[in-house]
Amino acid sequence: MTFEVIKPGFLTLLQDYGRYGMQHLGMATGGPLDEHAFLWANRLLDNHYNCAALEITLGPVRLRALQAVQIAIAGADFAARINQQPIEPWRSYWIEAGDELSFAAARCGVRAYLAVGGGFEAKLQHGSCATVMRERCGGLQGDGRRLEAGDRLECRPASPGQTQQVPPRYVPDYGAPLRLRLLPSYQYDQFDAAQVRRFFSSDYQVSPHSDRMGYRLSGPEIRASLDGIISEGIAYGAVQVPGDGQPIVLLRDRQTIGGYPKIGCVASLDAAQLAQRGPGAVIRFTPGDFAEVETERLDFNRFFGIGVSRR
Amino acid sequence: MRIEPVGESGCMLYLGEQIEPAVCARVCCAAELIRRRLAPYITDLVPSYASIFISLDLSRGGVMAFCALLRDALHDLDSVASESLVSGDVMSVGVYYGPEVAPDMDEVMQLAGLSSEEVIALHCGQEYLVYAIGFSPGFCFMGNTDARLKVPRKASPRTRVPAGSVALADRQTAVYPCVSPGGWQIIGRTAVDMLALCQRSESPLQVGSRLRFEPVSLECFVQAGGRV
User: Which CATH number is A178-304 given?
Assistant: First the structure.
């Protein structure tokens, strides 16, 4: 046993990198909404990129360590403490049996990732423990539920390493204005020049109705020349525009197929940054360059060792 | 055939413009060829009515390079596609159409101008093709229903549709595999666990599978594990 959950917070979910190869049955991949922070949390511990970590949304969480273990936190700053000692995100720490690890309210960002050396242990379903609540799949018990008080978290054995810190240039500022690079695709051509101009020149606000399925945005309406299309597969980061003209950026728990027109896809690493913005945050879209975004993504995957061998 | 990158880690393959069996055959056939010839490059394949979304394992290279590979891998699609869809058994799914599990039967009867016996006879009187799976895990979009059974979705979707509910919308029919919200018109219930069937290896339920419904008595429904 590594941790006992004293206070589970608003929404704390066990996530590995995601459940792949099941979307043809209508099952979402799940996985971390901000993969940049998730992957750094594992890397700080020299974990495999797919090791399960906790995704903590908006705090406030309290955990009691039941054994000595190395941890890393990355992503949002929730004023974390080990006992009464404040600690910073984007670093790894040693924690002793009996210590209490707590996260308070969000100071900057929306989601924090807590990884442990070796990764949290959970039963796999279709090769993954990623939690998709809507599908009652994944998580500690395999029924898709969030963490609850009294839950006990186990971790896999790991060899102790030095404590590490993420180089400052890789630490994003979640308070900075965000521009989402849109790769025109899907039904882009069904939006006329005036709609496209409005889309790229307007401010959009993150709606409070955003969740792990998708981020709803509110701002000037844009309209496709089509009401609907023959339902088709939806990529991560796809920007769906339903009849009310308000774009929705579709994320990890998105439906696998859908019939609303889509104006394109947000670069996946930008979508991860979007997931750190809370309701009311202002974002803009900007036309993305396919080759540039692709190169950046391939470099990112190489850096974190993301590939076919998942464990 | 149209191949287009969508985002930097996936692409769309468009194989037709209509919801019809011939397009479904091309979709199934292309999916099979991709699985056979390009498996190491993909993490997910989402076939739908007239297209396939392909999600890539980027450790093998980027989407631009993959689109070229895909075009090559499908060069003989049209010569293979005409042969598919004839194979495979037609699965039979027992449905109990009793009033206690068919909250929208009256509305369907009114909309269609048919008796419940006629609705049931039309619903069970033909084979259906699974055109797409999605919306929720194991939810199979099947069609096309008889034109006389064409009904709109409910103006206000239900917040909770019981698992196993058999429903109509437009010229499609489906089974809700799990409890979920839903706006289709519910005319019966089955004891068959559609999600479990989907998840089986060598699944009898995938895009391109054929299926028919068969009316069963309350006793049979309950015996098969169904609950009213």
Answer: 2.40.100.10
